[in-house]
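User:
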Amino acid sequence: MELIATFIDIILHLDTHLAALLAEYGTWIYAILFLIIFCETGLVVTPFLPGDSLLFVAGALAATGGMDIQILCATLLVAAVLGDNLNYWIGRSIGPRVFRWEQSRLFNRAAFDKTHAYFEKHGGKTIIIARFLPIVRTFAPFVAGVAKMTYSRYLPLDFLGGCIWIFSLTLGGYLFGNIPFIKNNLSLVILAIIALSLLPLFIGWLRHRREAVA
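Assistant: Predicted structure:
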């Protein structure tokens, strides 16, 4: 319980914790932020790391002169794209080994073919939208790799999604994060960002329940 409470405190007071890291490590803060975003997007075992709120708070800190906004955006974008691509290739290389049977409890060839077809047809939309969905953001590139979505199609869409995600939230924090009302209520803003990020998942869950009942 203490670990959970600590994690929640870090999430809700990212401004304080990030400012402390900046004061202690100086320019190494870029490497720390790179590592967090890289792991959050690149490793399926770390979907719990902060993403959206971290970008916003980092942008707000950059506006105070603590970081260079151009270097920050470039660092975060490289981390997000490299992370997603690592995740894609892990899925692509591990998937066939794990699901090597034509028909088994672990693998259904027909379902795999449908997943592959879905990513070929709707993968672009999925990859871009997933950037703004916690947890889904971590698993989408892995599934795309398992489904063997064509890499020449995946890469530019992933880069586009990464640009939209990084620049919208980081520049949003840079432009608006230090407005007195937002700065004085940053914990509520972070909660609002998390809630908005999770809203599409909640709507999808409601639709699934309604379809199941119908």
